[in-house]
Design brief:
alpha+beta; 9 helices; 15% strand; 229 residues
């Protein structure tokens, strides 16, 4: 029986650390990048094999770091509590880094840039989350806040809370955003009612509702783009 080589026993050109140092992280495969983070395997399983197991678990590749819970990660042989927490933190870091790189590109009147900024944050949520995104009179994004979690309807959404947040931040414009866990961003009757309610309140408060964007699975629906605001 051939003995499985550890990462240290591999040729230097095949070791993720040395490959990264010599060529750069961009030359590493997804499994090699994960192997560097995992550092060591366990029970005869090399870190690169352990990384590949994570990538193959639900056939979603790196997105498994988002989709798998800590408990599901810990069900993979070789992944304990510490590694599971590290992997979830890496996923959160990548999400935040992605959003930071997009923040300067967010344009108030361009629904696509706004949707792209919030896409990775919201598309993986299993519950509906309603957020308010606040902008200055020059269209610069200044703040955001979660307004409610759960089914979005006009009886739950509180314009008072939305506009109180806008006043605190001295916002001139706001955009409502919420996700559809089903992945289909098509608006419901409740979505239309919420939009009309907040739009009307904004006219009285002199804080304009610039858009209501629904986030689906790599897709979005903009009320402004569809001529409804």
């Amino acid at each position: 029986m051939t003995k499985r080589k550890t990462v240290k026993e591999l040729p230097k050109t095949e070791r993720p650390y040395e490959k990264c140092y010599g060529k750069g992280a961009e030359y590493l495969s997804d499994a090699e990048l994960l192997a560097v983070i995992l550092r060591t395997g366990t029970n005869g399983i090399r870190s690169i094999e352990l990384a590949q197991e994570i990538l193959d678990r639900q056939e979603n590749g790196l997105l498994n770091l988002y989709d798998l819970s800590k408990e599901e990660l810990m069900n993979i042989p070789g992944i304990g509590k510490v590694k599971a927490v590290q992997l979830k933190c890496i996923a959160e870091l990548s999400k935040r880094m992605s959003r930071l790189s997009l923040q300067e590109k967010v344009i108030l009147n361009d629904a696509k840039t706004v949707a792209e900024y919030y896409m990775e944050q919201m598309r993986h949520e299993t519950k509906e989350i309603l957020m308010v995104s606040l902008f200055t009179n020059k269209g610069r994004l200044i703040a955001e806040e979660v307004v409610s979690v759960g089914t979005i309807n006009s009886s739950i959404v509180s314009p008072r809370e939305i506009f109180y947040t806008a006043i605190i931040h001295n916002a001139a414009y706001l955009i409502l955003l919420h996700n559809h866990p089903s992945g289909d961003p098509s608006p419901s009757a409740n979505d239309h009612m919420v939009t009309e309610h907040v739009l009307e309140c904004g006219q009285y408060m002199n804080i304009q509702l610039a858009d209501h964007i629904i986030i689906g699975d790599n897709s979005y629906y903009s009320f402004r783009e569809n001529g409804l605001i």
